[in-house]
């Protein structure tokens, strides 16, 4: 082969090798995927493959979530024949960043940032419709007053009831003997 | 006692009180006219504010509170004295209180009305006031304030009205020949009072319950007013003693306002038989006691952050003690606290009278110095920018110190004069206390806003400082005028001294009982 053809042949060889690698499936390692469910929870799927891209069966996968105090192990699962281990993550708003770790001869790890769950639809408690329309916040006119409102109402109620009693006494002055 | 027409008979001093209700000379109309004019000007200023928004005031993003809230805290503070002082003295059986309690209670009523108006004036959109109810958040001290002030206003109105019923009945019988509206008003408000044993018993019951009830309500109101500030995490406001600090300050300024009112009514309505030097002396003791308590709280309030000197509070503390707010702060401490206490204790300080033996401490040299200082002040003000010619502005910079020295000189030279005239001394002291109290509220509110934890950024240079505008000063003047007008009109409709409560005291005096 003439020397001037060598680079061309080398390039063709590289292209062929790349195509072969692509045709052979995914590269080895651990991949992590998420699937959002209707109830707000996630199905986390970890797939373990070896260097040749073949699924690894029976690899131990650990699912973790990042908290304020570090990575919190949530669950462990073994991969099936397709190299897949899955875990159902409940709808905990604090868990945004999750990780899967696997030991398949070498230590593998993959991280995933969960999509922010859609804000739950505002659930209005049944109650006094008129008041709800006037105030959408659970404030003074909420049909479900918190305890401090009850306390203030009781205190003010006692004072105003005393006022009313005194006014009643005053109005009755005319009839007093 | 009644005359042959069935009208009640009154003693000479009671006639003086009634005469004050009838007499309306030129001076009265001139005063009312002036007050109405000031109120009218204030209404015009408010109309300008409504039309153009809060931009016509000195209030900006960081300065959401200014003179209006200063007025609010001041008026609510003054309002304390009526209910609280009257109730405490009533419950403790202090008999000397009888001629002055109504004045104090009327102060409460008038100042509460003015104070309660101020937050509305402070709102750029007063039409949204209903939102405070509709979307009220009980976590908000603003809402606590609204609830407590409403409760207090109702209670103090009752507390003012109930002891007036026997007097209103006297007026009902006395003003039979007067204007029909007046007779009708007294007939309605007298509630059929005939001075029977049953009615007296019932009235005493109501008054006793009110006297007990109004004390915690009054204390809670000013505590809640202080919480508007203390519930925030800001330099100068983040304090655990703001509640008692405000209550003590309120009582101090309120008691001083009563002294001013006592002197004004004594002079204008010739009530010398009712309000004697003894009353000024006792009120003086009360003001001194309250002043010392207030001074203690003030020391506590500033000493603890000053000792720690936390990073985020340094700017604020420096501004108050030695920065742009220092003249106001030291004015409140010296002219609004120290000097009034000195003036009130003058009768017990014997060496003061010997001050006149020093020629330099006689009134004339001090007055001459004050005149010269005033002349320099006018000259430098008129000269404006060219004052640099007077030694690179050295005179202008030294002027506050010169004025302070001259004022101190003037004060010292008049001390012997004040000692000879204890009532005048008490009035000057009480006026100083009230002016100082207003300025102190300003010093509490504004410097904190100027030194927020997050620096004021991306705001026009002028927004970083608060300068009240003519609109705010006009509305403030109108509020003061409104307070005085309500007070004067009240004294023309109802006796400013309780006739029935002081009758026994008057009879005892006439019978020679000590």
What brief labels describe this structure?
heterodimer, A: 177 residues, alpha+beta, four-stranded antiparallel sheet, three-stranded antiparallel sheet, rod-shaped, B: 514 residues, mainly alpha, 18 helices, globular, disordered C terminus
Which structural class do the helices and strands of chain B define? mainly alpha
Query: What general form of chain A does the structure show?
Result: rod-shaped
Largest sheet of chain A: 4 strands, antiparallel
The string of secondary-structure elements of chain B, in order, is HHHHHHHHHHHHHHHHHH
Number of strands of chain B: 0
How would you summarize the topology of this molecule?
The complex is a heterodimer of chains A (177) and B (514).
Chain A: H1 6-23, E1 29-36, E2 42-49, E3 60-67, E4 70-78, E5 84-89, E6 97-104, E7 106-113, H2 129-134, H3 147-171
Chain B: H1 12-22, H2 26-52, H3 67-91, H4 98-122, H5 131-134, H6 141-161, H7 165-174, H8 180-189, H9 197-230, H10 242-268, H11 277-308, H12 311-321, H13 326-345, H14 363-383, H15 394-420, H16 422-450, H17 470-493, H18 499-510
Helix pairs in contact in B: 2-17, 3-4, 3-9, 3-10, 3-16, 4-6, 4-10, 4-17, 6-9, 7-8, 9-10, 10-11, 10-16, 11-13, 12-13, 13-16, 14-15
Summarize the structure.
The complex is a heterodimer of chains A (177) and B (514). With 177 residues, chain A is of the alpha+beta class.
Structural features, described:
The complex is a heterodimer of chains A (177) and B (514). In chain A, the strands form 2 sheets. In chain A, strands 4-3-6-7 form a 4-stranded antiparallel sheet, with no helix packed on it. Chain A is α+β, with helices and mostly antiparallel strands. Chain A has 3 helices and 7 strands. Chain A is rod-shaped, with a radius of gyration of 34 Å. Chain A has helices spanning 6-23, 129-134, 147-171; strands spanning 29-36, 42-49, 60-67, 70-78, 84-89, 97-104, 106-113. In chain A, 28% of the residues lie in helices and 31% in strands. Chain B is mainly alpha-helical and 514 residues long. In chain B, 72% of the residues lie in helices and 0% in strands. Chain B is built from 18 helices and no strands. Chain B has helices at residues 12-22, 26-52, 67-91, 98-122, 131-134, 141-161, 165-174, 180-189, 197-230, 242-268, 277-308, 311-321, 326-345, 363-383, 394-420, 422-450, 470-493, 499-510. In chain B, helix 4 (98-122) packs across helix 10 and helix 4 (98-122) packs antiparallel against helix 17. Chain B is globular and about 70 Å long.
